[in-house]
Each structure stands twice: as C-alpha cells, then as structure tokens.
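User: Can you predict the 3D structure for this chain?
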Amino acid sequence: MAVATTPFTLLIKPSGSDCNIDCSYCFYKSRPAEVGQGRQRMSDEVLDRLVKDYMTLRFPMSGFAWQGGEPTLMGLDFYKRAVELQKRYGADGQEVGNSLQTNAILLNDEWCGFLRDAKFLVGISIDGPKDLHDRYRLDFSSAGTHERVLRALQRCRDLGVEFNTLTLINRLTGDHPDEVFDFLIEQGVRYLQFIPCVEVDPRTGEVTDFSVTAEQLGRFWCGMFDRWYAYGPRKVSIRDFDSILAYYVTGRHTICTFDRQCSQYIVIEHAGDAFPCDFFVEPRWRLGNIFETPMDDLAAGALKREFARAKRNLCNRCLQCRHLAICRGGCMKDRAPFDREGFARESFFCEAYKVFFEYSMPRFMELASQVRCGEPFRREQLT
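Assistant: Here is the predicted structure, written as structure tokens:
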C-alpha cells in the first residue's frame, strides 16, 4: 500500500463540466466526449466519502477547492453540508480552507453571506472591462455576462467576502494588459490570477483562433509586470509574479506551473473519479475512484507518481536553457496538445517566458534583496 506523506489539495468538481454560461473558449469544448458533459451532480454519498477520507488524513491544512464547470449549480445547501462534514470529520485544531471558483452569476446576498461567514475564498472569473470580457464570456442566448459578473463582484466586496479574480489571457485580452490591470484595480481587486489560453481544435488539430500567441503573451506579461511594479508589488498580488519572487527569495515556487513536478492537487469528479490535474481529466490519467481506492493510495499510487514525474521529461532545449531553474518547462498543459504522450517538448509559450524572464529579472532580484533584508512585504505570498 502506498501512503501519501506530502499534503495535497483536493480540487473538486461537484457539477462536472456543467455550466450556466457558454464561453466560446471553454476548454471542455475540445475535450473528448467520454470525459462526460451535460448535467452532472455530486451525490451526498460521494460528498460524505470524499470529505471523510480526506479529513482523516490529518494534514495540518486541509484544502478544498470547489470548481467546475460552474460549482454554484450545486446549490447553497450542498456547501452547507460540506462545511458540516468538515467539522464532523476534522480533528481539534485541524485547519480547513475552502475556495470556490465561479463565474459569479448566481452569487446573491444569501450566497455571499454564507461564503463570508464560512470563510470561503471566492475566485471570480472576469476578463477585464466589458468589451474584453463579453467577447468570449457569453450566456446561452449569446448575450454578454459582464454586467452580471460585475454586480456580483461588487456584492462580494460590499458584503465582506474574501475574493480574487481569474482572467484568461486570450487572443483579445493578450493585447490589453494595461486595461485589464487598471480595470481590476478600479474594482477593488488586490489578488489577481491569470491563465494563458491555448487550445487545439479537435477537428483540425490547429490552435484555435481565440488562443493567445507566444508573442502576445510575452508582451502581456511584460506590460502587466510594469503595471504591477509601478502600482506597488506590496499592494497587489499577481499569483505568477508572487511565485517567481518567492523563488528568488526562498528557492521554491508557490504554484505548480513553475514547480519541479505536478503533485499539488488531486481532482475529484462528481462521481468520485480521481485525476492528477484539472487539465488531464481523461481516461489515460484516471487514478481510480474514492469508493475503490483509499485517498492516500490515489495520491501516492504509481500512476500519480508517473504524472508527477512527467513534468521533468524535458527536451534538450529546455535542459540547456538559462531559465530552467525558474521555469521548469512551464505547465504541462501547454506542452500536452502537441506531445500528449511524453511531454518532452518545449512549452507553446516558451519564447514568451524567455522574453518575460529577461525583462523582469533585474527588478525581481531587487525586490528579493529587499525582502531578504527584512523590508515588509506580503509574506503570506512568499512562503
């Protein structure tokens, strides 16, 4: 029996790929049919088992990241039950962290009151100003969703819900780092996350027209870095930048994108199937099911270890690159569409990161020196 000794976070998808809006760039649209699409809901039995099995691992911090699809489709009572189960199965002093990644369409006052009182961290998906957001983030009647999302963001802010934002860097937003940053800051957002978008059309095998190019991404990161640095790195968090700064301070990254291996999460789908990563929910990487295999075995089993090690399968160009220690080949999803078996090729965004690392390195090193000398910073982002 393999036993997981390293803590990991659960990334739970209780409504599977089901969603209440119809984003043009949704990555489920390029996923095989066997992944399962349409109405999917986690049962009380699955919820009870996953909370019980995970809490009894007795990690110092038990992290539950609720995602989708759209996780609010489960209804508020589902999350009330989840919190009750966490209390039932947790030990005295055992810390629990809940996060919810949402399009925010359903977040009314009742939802916000619960999320605030239960200390959920809410991630709101928003692609900047209206003209950028509404290009791809549409509902099923092809209407833009920006106004509804912005109202929900303002409601979270006004009612004291802890929240951050998640923005997709796509073919449109990739040209507007200044506008995206300024808009989010104007809305009171101080914790920003970004994901570069690259998807392959399964019909043609070609990169989709909404995917950001490597050249665009390099310019975007440089422009965003300038905005962040000028505004004040101590006043606003950008997850990727915090991780790079943490590397310069401690020698360790804080996000899986730049880590040595992919082992921070286990994904649990609505029926209890487990996978090593949200971007690899496919039969090849099915670890098992929580009703068949103990959770610590899922985390430490041979297939999970194989996936974790796969990130180290780097091409010669990566191995000879001066930025290898910072980049570690980037996220495997950005290699996968082009080499799904071995991952031994450079990232689709390789040139973007080279440009960005060269551009930002002197100022990152300056900030790191300040932190090492004891100057105040957001230390929770650097540990």
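The beta strands are 9-13, 61-66, 95-102, 121-125, 162-169, 191-196, 237-238, 265-269, 273-275, 288-289. The first strand starts at residue 9 and ends at 13.
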